[in-house]
Amino acid sequence: MRAILLLAILAIGAFFLYDRFQRGEGAAPDVIENPMYAEFRMDMKVASREIDLVLFGLMASDEDCRKRADRVWDKVIEGCKECTIKVMECKADIGARYERLFDDNPIHSTYLSFKRGSPFERDGRMVIFGLTSDEGDALCEQTRARFQSQYSGKVTCVIGRRD
After folding, report:
1. What are the Cα distances from residue 27, in Å, to 31, 60, 138?
2. pTM for this one?
3. Does a structural domain hold residue 163?
4. Helix/strand/coil (H, E, C) string of 106-157?
5. pLDDT tens digits, residue range 61-78?
6. What residue numbers bound the domain in which 31 lies?
7. 94 with 41: CB under 8 angstroms?
8. Could you give the number of structural domains in the chain?
9. What is the DSSP pairing of strand 111-115 with strand 123-129?
């Protein structure tokens, strides 16, 4: 029962983040030549477990990143009482460890990949650490289905390595 509750809470929180993150006024060019990355990290304590959520977005510019990030920041703080925001920043480099997520390379955790389908959307990746493999897979699929209903681009789960 706790696992189901945990997954439901995380799926709602993840969808909330995504919804605020993706709504933007400005279009981006088909090819983003000098991207900026939005990075959000937050912790959520559920029962005795600590869950870490990381969301990366590929933005068209620093201005695009800041506008979208500010919307997420304001709404997440008021919308998630169990969450502790750890990082919210825009930067030109997120390091090779996380850049590979944008090539949909598997890591140890299953993560959500969304690729923009219109100039008003942005590519993003969402990783939730602190779940079992089965929980991560189930949460990703549940969240993927929700995101796909609101997103014109391709939304997939990149299944975590089991080694």
Report:
1. 11, 9, 33
2. 0.81
3. no
4. CCCCCEEEEECCCCCCCEEEEEEECCCHHHHHHHHHHHHHHHHCCCCCEEEE
5. 998 888 877 766 665 555
6. 2-158
7. no
8. 1
9. antiparallel
